[in-house]
Amino acid sequence: MEWVKALHVISVIAWMAGSLYLPRLFVYHSVAEKGSVQSETFKVMERRLYRGIMTPAMIASWIFGLIMVFNGMVDWSSGWPWVKAAFVIALSGYHGWMGGFLRAFREDRNVKPQKFFRMINEVPTLLMIVIVIMVIVKPF
């Protein structure tokens, strides 16, 4: 099970790295002129990050996490796993939300300003803070 834990942590790190970087790409992409070389380059970068790193990492995080759950490594009588699970589901929803913006940029129909992407870039950090505190501190 130590290998499963290690692989879970590795995949979570990759998922979080992408979750923090993709909105930053959107910040720069939102000010690039539609159809420009720069805009087309951002499309490639965003697609590769989302499909090549973030989504596989999210799937791996879920798989390794569920392996630990089904092998009795989580005491569901405590409150912390429920909070962690809720925030992981929220992070997964955020991932899907980013996929929607990816499609909008790909189709040159993004209408959100760069300030919007700067603000939502903080969401995964806030979710991660709660998740890590639940797992490490287990406050309840």
From TrEMBL:
One Pfam assignment: UPF0093
Protein name: Protoporphyrinogen IX oxidase
Organism name: Paradevosia shaoguanensis
Record NCBIfam families: protoporphyrinogen oxidase HemJ
Cofactor note: Binds 1 heme b (iron(II)-protoporphyrin IX) group per subunit.
Subunit structure: Homodimer.
Pathway the protein acts in: Porphyrin-containing compound metabolism; protoporphyrin-IX biosynthesis; protoporphyrin-IX from protoporphyrinogen-IX: step 1/1
UniProt function note: Catalyzes the oxidation of protoporphyrinogen IX to protoporphyrin IX.
PANTHER family named among the record's database cross-references: PROTOPORPHYRINOGEN IX OXIDASE, UPF0093 MEMBRANE PROTEIN SLR1790
Protein's membrane topology: Multi-pass membrane protein
EC number(s) recorded for this UniProt protein: 1.3.99.-
Residues that span the membrane, as ranges: 6-28, 49-70, 82-104, 116-137
InterPro entries reported for this sequence: HemJ-like
